[in-house]
Structure formats: C-alpha cells, structure tokens
Amino acid sequence: MFQIGDRRIGPEEPAYVIAEMSCNHHGRYEEAEAILRSAKEAGADALKLQTYTPDTMTLDCDLPAFTIQGTIWAGRRLHELYAEAMTPWDW
Questions:
Q1: Contact at 8 Å (CB) between 86 and 54?
Q2: How far, in Å, CA of 12 to CA of 81, rounded?
Q3: Is 20 helix (H, G, I), strand (E, B) or coil?
Q4: Which helix (H) or strand (E) holds 54?
Q5: 3-class SS at 77?
Q6: Which residues contact 6 (CB under 8 A, 6 or more apart)?
Q7: Helix (H, G, I), strand (E, B) or coil at 8
Q8: Confidence at 90, pLDDT banded by 50, 70, 90
Q9: Which of 5, 24, 39, 43 measures 20 to 30 Å from 33, CA to CA?
Q10: Residue 36 in 3-state DSSP?
C-alpha cells in the first residue's frame, strides 16, 4: 500500500486511472490542455506525458537504421517523426 497525494493505492482501493496523451496534442499547447481537462472530466487520476526532444531519442541521420520501413511512416526518419510528436519540456 502507498499513497499519491490524497489517494491510497493498493489491492483494496479503487483503480488508479492514468490517461495517456502521447502526441495527440499535434504540437499545440491548447490541445494538450484540452486533453488534460478531458482526462480529468472522464475520471482519470493522472496523465502520462512523454517529454523529450528528437535529439534525446535518436540521431538526425539518413542511414537505413534511422529510417522507418514497412509502416504508414515508411521512408520517414525517426528524428523527423519525434520532432512532430514531442511534448516540449516547458509545457
């Protein structure tokens, strides 16, 4: 058993719900804030953020190992995709 804020977490307690924002904010702070508010209204207890920059995740490189193959993003570089999906640290 442990506690997060006022919430007790443990086998006999209600589920602690964590919503995931991921890159659904489309790079816009206002959308990120709307997602946060919607998660709270839906009953989420917390929101998971993925804060990074492309340079903390991968190299800005055209080598095959850094280019996506076999998905809807085929041909795109990892660095480029991470730049589009990132949640800025200052948010």
A1: yes
A2: 42
A3: strand
A4: helix 54-57
A5: strand
A6: none
A7: strand
A8: confident
A9: 5
A10: helix
